[in-house]
Structure formats: structure tokens, C-alpha cells
Write a sequence for this structure.
């Protein structure tokens, strides 16, 4: 049995113990969906970081910087800076006015059934696409790292994630995310240290080799410090810079609309703790992405390219583990591989949790049963069944779509979050005239526009050469479309006195926390 | 945070079948000068902060995309303007979060005062 496998199993064993512990504490809806709102600021900060920094972040960004240098680092910058939007605009109003899901905030003033139905649909779309992306990545990585073939690897990840979510609920999911965040930071710190050691702790030496990266002599040296290797006009054509701007816009506005991140703010006792948890998350996430400088750029100067080819192909997703192998030997390689595995599990558990909570709470309880589900525990039962269904669908799709472009699915998730979810969240809290038609129009048009533009774009159905829409990141077009649809939908429909009448209530709740959901367990 | 909460005012928009007790007078609360002051104080910080953040952040891809030669200028060894500007975004985000938390602590007090004014 390989060392990697032993480390995987150690992580799995630990998380299963946590799940067992959490299962005994799940004594009601608030405990199951929101961890009893008893998570502290730093804990939730780590959990947000653990929920957010996906396989795409750790493995994808290292690979992207390895190949495209500075342009890959743009992702690192955007992933942190996005939290300003979360901190200043959405975290506190959401915590104050909501209960379990993103739709709670919208349902306050607007007609609950249509709004919740669409918000739930959007949550399911975002979560499912994001989850398939993680699972496809997971399958490929586990295959390379411990030699388990693709299908059993995906099924294994899916089953574990279901165990956490179905038995442990939000409490177990939170702790899996916290442990993962700690492991990821330890791994990133060790990798960074080893990269610096390789350069004899000379920053000058480090940047010198980054500026003349030759991938161990296998390629003509290029300057990875210079922008333009991915989005520059010379490489990507005239649309390149616009695609980069669009990517940045999608990152900073999409994060604040990602349902699995938003629901994390319901797990803390109050808005003040939600605020401090964003700050904790920003400290961790920022430190991590600054370190991508070292192990992303560093990989290009340290790894001999030949090491990356296991079956004749270059797999840039393996840059971080291979760097670990070169610098720290088999044991460190095993540790970083286990970290990658933990990363994937924590993110898919968070996604399943938010998708199933949204279906059970928004769709089952409020759309189908008009908010009158009186049998205790029914909402949790439905959420558990939904988790199974979502899990099974994602496993099935991940196995069928194993050749799919992972970046395409992640891009789609961010784009829908920015173009459909964020406009209606913002307008609902800040615009009195906003009404149900506007919310429905914003959600539906934002969702459809994102999907269509990505399908027509370079990562879509026509491929790079024949793309009808020139941008792989549609945010610069789809976000204004989402806002415009929400705005026009409102103005073109009759005023809604009920929604406007409740604006004062939402305002007082959102800004003072009066009447907000309280912690139930300690 | 106990001062914020009054279990008697618990109102839930959702499915729990708990008794719904009497509601606070939201309109009256919203019309209080103390509440209006709180909102304008928040807007005075958040709106300029968001504008600054968006301009500062989006300047990065715009400059990198359209003025690459300027951004490639080396400042210290191989470290160029582009990398330093990217790195500065991290510190901008952290400083902004720090300032926000400091200012928001004052809003917490103002919000508590709005609620307590009603009793």
C-alpha cells in the first residue's frame, strides 16, 4: 500500500469520526442546515476558505501559473479581492435576514413561490456544474496519485461526500472544511518554504529564474513575470484583454453569489461574527494565493517537464504534487496528494449541502407546501434524499463527462452566480421598487444568458476556432444583462405595494439584526 | 449580542411551525432619525469604498491588457510594475477589510441604539 493511500485513509478516518460526532448533535433543522448557528468567527473563516479553495484553486492555479505565468496569477488576485464584495455587500444582510438559503433573503419582500423556485433552480445549476467540475478533476487526480482508476475514484468521492452531508449535516461539513483548510495551508507553507530553500532563500535569485523559465531546459526560456502569455493580444487576439477584464469582473461579482459560500454565513450566531469570519477567510485565502507566487512560478523553474508526463501527456493539474515530489520526496508527495484529495472532498460536501438545503427548504417546503410543512424533521428528510439524488446525478455525469473541460464548468458556475444571483440579492436589499417580476426576470435571464454565452464561446460547443461569441468569460456581457433584466422586469410590471411595504422591514432587519435567527446549540 | 435579540420578536418567514408573536413596528423603526443616520453613515463608507475597490481592481486587467509595455517595466531586479500592482491588490483588500471592521464596530453600537430606543 502506498504512502499516499495511507494518508488518504487517515484523512477519511478522521472525517468519519467527525461525522459520527456531528450526527449525534443533529437534533433539528437549524442544527442540520446551519450547524445550530454555533460556529465561531475563526472557525467559519477557515470553513469559508475550505469551502472556497477548490481543486481548481490549488491544482488548477499552480498549473495555470506554471504554463501562463503572470496571467495565471490574475486568478489568484481575483479569488481574494472578490471577498471585498462579500464583506461589504452581502454577508451581513444575508445573515440578518435569512435562515438557511440564499432565497430566504429574496422571499422576504417578494412573492415567495416564484422567487424561491427560480433561486433554487439557480442554486442547483451552480452547485451541480461546480460539483461535476470538482469530481472530474478528482477522478483524474486520484487516478494519477494513487492509481485507482477514474470510475471507482469518482464513486468513492461521491459516497464519502454523501456520508458527511447525509449523516453529519452542516456541522460535519464545516469541520471537514476547517481541517481541509488547515491541511491546505500547511501544505502550501511547506511547498513555499522548499521553493525558497531551492533558491537559497534569495528572492532575487527566485525572480531571476522565473524571468528566465526554461522548464528544465525543455523549452526556450520565457519570462513568466510578464503579462500576456494567456490573455495578451499577441496570443489571444484582439479579444484577449477584454476576456481578462471579463474574467476579473466575473470573479469579483460571482463569489458573492455562490450559494455554497453564502450559506456558510448562516452557521454563525450573528452578523458581527459573519463579518469577522469573512476577515478570517480573507487572511487565509490571501496568504494562500500570495504563496501561489512561490509554488506556481517556482514550479516552472524547478520541475523538469518530463516529470509531468505519466502517459505521454502533459497534465498541468499535477504541477503542485510533482513539485512536492521533486523538492520533498515521496513522503511529501503523498502528503500533498492527500491535501488535494481533502480539498476536493471538502468542496463537494459544501456544494451538496447547499444544493440539498435549497431544494428541501426553498422548493419542497415553500414552493410545493406553501411554507407549511408541519411534520418535524420532514425538511431534513427531504434534504437527505436530495443529497442522494444530487450526488448520484453528479457521479453519473462526472463519469460520462470525464473528457469535459473543467474550466468551462467552473466558469459557468461563476458566471451564473454573478449574472443571476448577485443582481437580485443586491436589488432586493437596496431598491425599494424591486418586485417579484424583476427578481424572476433577473434570475431567469441571468441564468439563460450565462449558459448560452458559454455554450457559444470558445470553451463551448463550437470549439475555439468556430466560436460565435469571442469570450470564454462572459461576465462583462452577462452581468449587465442580468441587472438589466431585473431592472426592466421591475419597471415594466405594475408596482407591488406589498413588496414595497415590506422594504422597511427588510431594511431594519438587514441593518440592525433585529429579529434575526438565533443560535440554537452551544 | 444579546442586546439585539428579543425572543418575543422572533418572526420567521419560513416553514417552522412556531408561534408568531407580535411584530415590531418596522415602519416606525425605519423612520427613526437614528436609523436613517445609521444608513447614511453606512452608505458614506461603503459606496466610496466599493467605487475605489472596483476602480483599483479593474485598473489591473485594463492596464495589463492594453498597456503591457508600461506594465513590463522592471522596478527591482526582474520584479516589474505588473507584479507589484497585482501584489498591491492583496494589501488593498486586507487594508479595506481592516478599515471596514473598525468602522462597522461603530455601526453595531448605533444599531443597538436604534433598537433600544423603541422600549
Amino acid at each position: 500500500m502506498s504512502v499516499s493511500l495511507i494518508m488518504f485513509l487517515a484523512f477519511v478516518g478522521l472525517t468519519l469520526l467527525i461525522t459520527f460526532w456531528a450526527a449525534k448533535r443533529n437534533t433539528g433543522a437549524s442544527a442540520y442546515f446551519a450547524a445550530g448557528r454555533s460556529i465561531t468567527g475563526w472557525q467559519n473563516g477557515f470553513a469559508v476558505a475550505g469551502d472556497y479553495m477548490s481543486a481548481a484553486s490549488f491544482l488548477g492555479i499552480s498549473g495555470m501559473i506554471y504554463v501562463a505565468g503572470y496571467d495565471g496569477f490574475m486568478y489568484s488576485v481575483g479569488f481574494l479581492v472578490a471577498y471585498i464584495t462579500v464583506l461589504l455587500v452581502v454577508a451581513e444582510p444575508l445573515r440578518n435576514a435569512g435562515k438557511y438559503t440564499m432565497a430566504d433573503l429574496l422571499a422576504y419582500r417578494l412573492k415567495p413561490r416564484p422567487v424561491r423556485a427560480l433561486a433554487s433552480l439557480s442554486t442547483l445549476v451552480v452547485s451541480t456544474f461546480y460539483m461535476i467540475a470538482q469530481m472530474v478533476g478528482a477522478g483524474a487526480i486520484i487516478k494519477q496519485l494513487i492509481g485507482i482508476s477514474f470510475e471507482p475514484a469518482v464513486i468513492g468521492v461521491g459516497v464519502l461526500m454523501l456520508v458527511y452531508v447525509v449523516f453529519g449535516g452542516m456541522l460535519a461539513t464545516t469541520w471537514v472544511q476547517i481541517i481541509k483548510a488547515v491541511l491546505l495551508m500547511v501544505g502550501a507553507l511547506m511547498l513555499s518554504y522548499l521553493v525558497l530553500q531551492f533558491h537559497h532563500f534569495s528572492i532575487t535569485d527566485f525572480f531571476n529564474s522565473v524571468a528566465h523559465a526554461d522548464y528544465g531546459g525543455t523549452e526556450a526560456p520565457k519570462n513568466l513575470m510578464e503579462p500576456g502569455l494567456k490573455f495578451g493580444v499577441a496570443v489571444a487576439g484582439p479579444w484577449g484583454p477584454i476576456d481578462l477584464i471579463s474574467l476579473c469582473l466575473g470573479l469579483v461579482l460571482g463569489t458573492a453569489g455562490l450559494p455554497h459560500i453564502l450559506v456558510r454565513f448562516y452557521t454563525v450566531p450573528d452578523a458581527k461574527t459573519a463579518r469577522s469570519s469573512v476577515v478570517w477567510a480573507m487572511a487565509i485565502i490571501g496568504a494562500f494565493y500570495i504563496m501561489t507566487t512561490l509554488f506556481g512560478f517556482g514550479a516552472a523553474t524547478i520541475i523538469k517537464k518530463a516529470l509531468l508526463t505519466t502517459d505521454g501527456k502533459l497534465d498541468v493539474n499535477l504541477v503542485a504534487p510533482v513539485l512536492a515530489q521533486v523538492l520533498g520526496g515521496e513522503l511529501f508527495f503523498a502528503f500533498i496528494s492527500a491535501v488535494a484529495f481533502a480539498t476536493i472532498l471538502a468542496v463537494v460536501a459544501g456544494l451538496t449541502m447547499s444544493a440539498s438545503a435549497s431544494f428541501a427548504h426553498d422548493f419542497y417546503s415553500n414552493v410545493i407546501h406553501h411554507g407549511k410543512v408541519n411534520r418535524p424533521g420532514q425538511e431534513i428528510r427531504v434534504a437527505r434524499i436530495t443529497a442522494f439524488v444530487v450526488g448520484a446525478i453528479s457521479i453519473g455525469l462526472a463519469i460520462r463527462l470525464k473528457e469535459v473541460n473543467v474550466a468551462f464548468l467552473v466558469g459557468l458556475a461563476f458566471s451564473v452566480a454573478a449574472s443571476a444571483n448577485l443582481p437580485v440579492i443586491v436589488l432586493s436589499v437596496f431598491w425599494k421598487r424591486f418586485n417579484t417580476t424583476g427578481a424572476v426576470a433577473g434570475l431567469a435571464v441571468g441564468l439563460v444568458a450565462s449558459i448560452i454565452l458559454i455554450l457559444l464561446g470558445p470553451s463551448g460547443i463550437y470549439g475555439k476556432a468556430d466560436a460565435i461569441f469571442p469570450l470564454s468569460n462572459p461576465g462583462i456581457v452577462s452581468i449587465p444583462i442580468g441587472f438589466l433584466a431585473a431592472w426592466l422586469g421591475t419597471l415594466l410590471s405594475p408596482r407591488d405595494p406589498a413588496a414595497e411595504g415590506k422594504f422597511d422591514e427588510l431594511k431594519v432587519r438587514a441593518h440592525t439584526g433585529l429579529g434575526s435567527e438565533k443560535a440554537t446549540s452551544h | 449580542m444579546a442586546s439585539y435579540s428579543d425572543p418575543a420578536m422572533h418572526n420567521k418567514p419560513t416553514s417552522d411551525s412556531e408561534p408568531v408573536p407580535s411584530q415590531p413596528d418596522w415602519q416606525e423603526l425605519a423612520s427613526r432619525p437614528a436609523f436613517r443616520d445609521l444608513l447614511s453613515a453606512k452608505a458614506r463608507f461603503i459606496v466610496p469604498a466599493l467605487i475605489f475597490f472596483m476602480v483599483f481592481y479593474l485598473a489591473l486587467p485594463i492596464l495589463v491588457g492594453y498597456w503591457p509595455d508600461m506594465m513590463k517595466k522592471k522596478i527591482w531586479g526582474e520584479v516589474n510594475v505588473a507584479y507589484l500592482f497585482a501584489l498591491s491588490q492583496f494589501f488593498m483588500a486586507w487594508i479595506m477589510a481592516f478599515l471596514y471592521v473598525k468602522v462597522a464596530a461603530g455601526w453595531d453600537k448605533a444599531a443597538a441604539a436604534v433598537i433600544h430606543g423603541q422600549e
Observations:
- Chain A has a mean pLDDT of 88.
- DSSP finds 20 helices and no strands in chain A.
- Chain A touches chain B through 76 residues (CB under 8 Å).
